[in-house]
Specification:
The complex is a heterodimer of chains A (152) and B (725). Chain A has 152 residues and is an alpha+beta fold. Chain A has five helices and five strands, in the order ββαβββαααα. In chain A, helix 2 crosses helix 5. Chain B has three domains: 170 residues, Aldehyde oxidase/xanthine dehydrogenase, a/b hammerhead (Aldehyde Oxidoreductase, domain 3, Alpha-Beta Complex), CATH 3.90.1170.50; 317 residues, Aldehyde oxidase/xanthine dehydrogenase, molybdopterin binding domain (Aldehyde Oxidoreductase, domain 4, 2-Layer Sandwich), CATH 3.30.365; 120 residues, 2-Layer Sandwich (Aldehyde Oxidoreductase, domain 4). In chain B, helix 4 packs across helix 5, helix 8 packs parallel to helix 16 and helix 15 crosses helix 16. The radius of gyration of chain B is 26 Å and the shape is globular. The chains are: A alpha+beta (152), B alpha+beta (725). Bound molecules: FE2/S2 (inorganic) cluster (2 copies).
Chain lengths: 152, 725
């Protein structure tokens, strides 16, 4: 099936079975390997991307569903300079091994768009679908809480 | 000056933008996908392995043990683990055959289409039964190792005898990146490996032995967490991928699915610990008797070393004039257990800290006051006869208690917690952790680091990998500081065994302290080399005047063990570790009295790190390790079926803490310098695993009266331990 969508700002066309996972199309067909596979069943959030602004686990999305939509992956989160979330994660030490980091950044960026001054509690809720085994989340939450302060 | 500051991590920008390439992100031209056919039985003879004639085998390669070019052994400590089972399987999920196919889907389908016929044999799944059983798994008695330490004089005083049994369960490392490895044929007939790993030279040795030649190099890809789970296990994937690459002449990638990774890879050793103490009326420990068993699983892996560290830590950070400590690690027909952050010490100290609470209960003493009365002081002697220099127990206890005075902000009630009837409690626990290898380990390893001046920059050559903890950032800081140049001008080269010396494995809280110390020495050697020709001057001035005819500006340094460290591996007496880290953890939590669920409000940790080379990286290690320990305490339970196979092999039912489960943390870094570490630094990677679980148990007890001596303290266990109200 021919699927067309806007990926990271670029019109994109792929020829693929309709039920192929969006994660595989991104990683294998488009070679956008920043979205990671930690579980393949919607539990870890390492594959988080945005479709028309909504965060989704791309391992659970059959690719036909993105036909005609706007998809953003970590590769499209920032152009030349880091997105404020990425910059804050760097400054606060929110990334360690980094395998969860792209997914966390996508979820955090979406949160800050809907709520530019989230409480730490709200940040925890928004990031609850993104597992991180390295950081204990403390510096991740510091970063997301800090990214807005430094931004203003 | 960068030591003591927290510059952004070197690999941060690539990781944050998705540019960093992990093993599964790589796809060399012509690559095939590998998959593994595994045993469905715990203990069985293999009668036949044959391809299903109904399946389309076009383009698919199948290999078994018969296809091995060399010894059928995963090289590590003991030659007992086959690369592929040959005629006999000793645990469920043991690899039997390998598949290479053009797509991942075809590879997985083909693995299912390999038909294995078994003749079942009786299996021993319980370590206490397996010890000395007539069915043999390892040696004469199914014991990988026994260790006994006895020291001191039996007490002549009468006192209170307190005894109890404690237990801990399996725990999965749960790095978020599953195991992954790619083997590619080299033009010279050799094999190049790239993969997710902690220890490139373990992989290098295992593959070279299997293929029988030296044309092998191993490169660490960016690695998505290890925690010990990528210490020894990647050698198995590497041998498998190499076999398939040699047979097909193409690169082959093996990436485990999460469920496969959970069922097959090593876990934390479960342990049963019997403690008996004689305690004076004033609460002074007079005698400690410990008996500890661990389940090693079907193959040896690193079990004897895990046992060793468990026994050396079982007394906790407390002085005791007589100790009799014995431990046994037993073989069973279950998937092998292996390295996991803490390496036996968390299990042992869980038991001792719980036991201190039991002693306090028995003597009607405050549990913290009891600890104070027994905590190691300067000059005290440990169970191995080691004289302690500047132990940090009191320092971490006091700073943690001070920090815990800050008011606790209670988190809102979480999903799964009813919130109707909640009981709040606070718990405190202490731990010590030996930094680096036990005893004479470093003397055997002789870890090396190379430095090369390249233009105006300095390349650091080591096999110490960055698995998230920050090696790529820390080593340049140490070298830059020593040479008097900005850290930004020093960099780690790729960790490729074809290009870097063997610095020893990335384990045992040794990378910053031991290999970092070797980096510092190497930088001093580089300065000495420059000054021997040119006299005094700044590094840059000397380099600019260096005549290339004098030879390359490069040095290699080997770790020098402190000659004052004496260790007898036969009697287990002497200096067990070059130094110890110390930690105190204070947990505030609430227990849901209707469900037994534990809700974490706050955790204060105070840790003696020697010197915080980068406070942000050090705190990051401690916070991550603390949450991993809280997971072990109340959430993470591996459930085995009747074959010893992990039943809850998914992230939906093996539960690790999320951002909602994690408490706010206050992280204090105490700095009691260790003269043998770079700028005073001690190892810190593992100590955060040691104390939290016991602090949680004490807090639950304070909140509810429920006494729990077995980990994990799942809601079911907590609920059934609650007093009926
Ligand atoms: S890979 Fe999609 S949620 Fe884990
Ligand atoms: S940084 Fe390693 S899993 Fe989050």
């Amino acid at each position: 099936m021919n699927i067309r969508f806007v990926c990271n700002g670029k019109p994109t066309e792929v020829e693929t079975p309709p039920m192929a996972r969006l994660l595989d199309v991104l990683r294998e067909d488009l070679r956008l390997t920043g979205s990671k596979e930690g579980c393949g069943e919607g539990e870890c959030g390492a594959c988080t991307v945005r479709i028309d602004g909504l965060t989704v686990m791309s391992c659970l999305v059959p690719v036909y569903q993105v036909h005609g939509t706007v998809v953003q992956t970590i590769e499209g989160l920032a152009a030349d300079i880091l997105h404020p979330v990425q910059a804050a994660m760097l400054a606060h030490g929110g990334a360690q091994c980094g395998i969860c980091t792209p997914g966390l950044c996508m979820s955090a960026a979406a949160l800050l768009e809907s709520d530019p001054t989230p409480s730490r509690e709200a940040i925890r809720v928004a990031l609850a679908g993104n597992l991180c085994r390295c950081t204990g989340y403390q510096k991740v939450i510091d970063a997301v809480a800090g990214s807005l302060v430094e931004d203003r | 000056m960068s030591i003591g500051t927290s510059p952004p991590r070197r690999d941060g920008p690539d990781k944050l933008t998705g540019r960093a390439l992990y093993a599964d992100d790589l796809r060399p031209d012509g690559m095939l996908y590998g998959a593994t056919v595994r045993s469905e039985r715990a203990h069985a003879r293999i009668l036949s392995v044959r391809p299903d004639p109904e399946f389309d085998w076009n383009g698919i390669t199948v290999l078994t043990a018969a296809d091995l070019p060399g010894p059928n052994v995963v090289t590590l400590m003991t030659d007992d683990q086959p690369i592929l089972a040959d005629g006999l399987v000793r645990h469920v999920t043991e690899p039997i055959a390998l598949i290479a196919a053009p797509t991942r889907e075809r590879a997985l389908a083909a693995a299912k289409a390999v038909l294995v016929e078994y003749e079942d044999l009786p299996a021993l799944l319980d370590p206490l039964t397996a010890e000395g059983h007539a069915i043999r798994i390892f040696g004469d008695d199914n014991v990988y190792k026994r260790i006994r330490i006895q020291r001191g004089e039996r007490s002549t005083l009468t006192g209170h005898l307190v005894r109890a049994r404690y237990a801990t369960g399996l725990q999965e490392q749960l790095y978020i990146e599953p195991q992954s490895m790619i083997a590619s044929p080299r033009p010279d007939g050799g094999i190049a490996l790239v993969g997710s790993m902690q220890c490139p030279y373990y992989v290098d040795r295992a593959v070279k032995r299997m293929v029988g030649h030296d044309r092998v190099n191993v490169l660490q890809a960016v690695t998505g967490g290890g925690f010990g789970g990528k210490e020894e296990y990647p050698s198995i994937l590497a041998c498998h991928a190499t076999l398939l690459a040699m047979r097909t002449g193409r690169p082959v990638k093996i990436t485990y699915r999460r469920d496969e990774d959970l069922r097959c890879t090593t876990k934390r050793h479960p342990a049963v610990i019997d403690l008996a103490t004689l305690v004076s009326d004033e609460g002074k420990l007079l005698e400690l008797h410990a008996k500890l068993w661990m389940d090693g699983g079907a193959y040896h892996t690193l079990s004897t070393v895990v046992l060793s560290r468990a026994i050396l830590h079982v007394g906790g950070p407390y002085r005791c004039p007589f100790v009799d400590l014995s431990g046994t690690v037993v073989a069973t027909h279950t998937p092998p257990n292996g390295a996991f952050r803490g390496f036996g010490a968390p299990q042992a100290q869980w038991a001792m800290e719980r036991h201190m609470d039991r002693v306090a209960r028995t003597l009607h003493l405050d549990p913290i006051e009891l600890r104070r009365r027994n905590l190691y002081r300067d000059g005290d002697i440990t169970g191995t006869g080691q004289v302690l220099v500047a132990p940090g127990g009191f320092a971490v206890l006091e700073s943690a208690e001070r920090a815990a005075e800050a008011p606790v902000t209670r988190t809102t009630v979480r999903p799964g917690v009813t919130g109707a009837r909640m009981a709040a409690g606070r718990g405190l626990a202490l731990a010590w952790h030996g930094c680096g290898f036990t005893g004479n380990g470093e003397a055997k390893i002789k870890g090396k680091v190379g430095l090369e001046v390249r233009g105006s920059d300095v390349a650091i050559l080591s096999s110490s990998t960055d698995i998230g903890q920050g090696t790529e950032t820390i080593f340049p800081m140490i070298v830059g500081e020593t040479l008097g140049i900005p850290a930004a001008r020093a960099f780690n080269t790729p960790h490729d065994t074809g290009l870097v010396p063997d610095s020893g494995p990335t384990v045992a809280s040794r990378t910053a302290m031991v290999v970092g110390g070797t980096c510092q020495k190497a930088a001093e050697q580089l300065l000495t080399l420059l000054r021997s020709r040119l006299g005094d001057g700044s590094f840059d001035a000397l380099v600019s005047r260096w005549d290339p005819n004098w030879g390359p500006l490069a040095v290699e340094e080997t770790y020098e063990v402190d000659p004052n460290i004496q260790w007898d591996p036969d009697t287990y007496q002497g200096d067990a570790y070059p130094t110890f880290g110390w930690s105190c953890v204070i947990v505030d939590l609430r227990v849901d009295l209707d469900t037994g669920e534990v809700l974490y409000d706050r955790v204060v940790t105070s840790t003696d790190v020697g010197r915080a080379l980068s406070p942000a990286l050090a705190a990051g290690q401690i916070e991550g390790g603390t949450l991993q320990a809280l997971g072990w305490a109340t959430a993470e339970e591996v459930v085995l079926d009747a074959r010893g196979c992990m039943r809850n092999d998914r992230l939906t039912n093996y539960i690790i803490p999320t951002a909602l489960d994690a408490p706010e943390m206050i992280t204090i870094l105490e700095e009691i310098p260790y003269a043998g570490g770079p700028f005073g630094a001690k190892g810190i990677g593992e100590i955060p695993m040691d104390a939290p679980a016991a602090a949680v148990a004490q807090a639950i007890e304070r909140a509810t009266g429920a006494i729990l001596d077995t980990l994990p303290m799942t809601p079911e266990r907590v609920f059934s331990a609650l007093e009926p109200r």
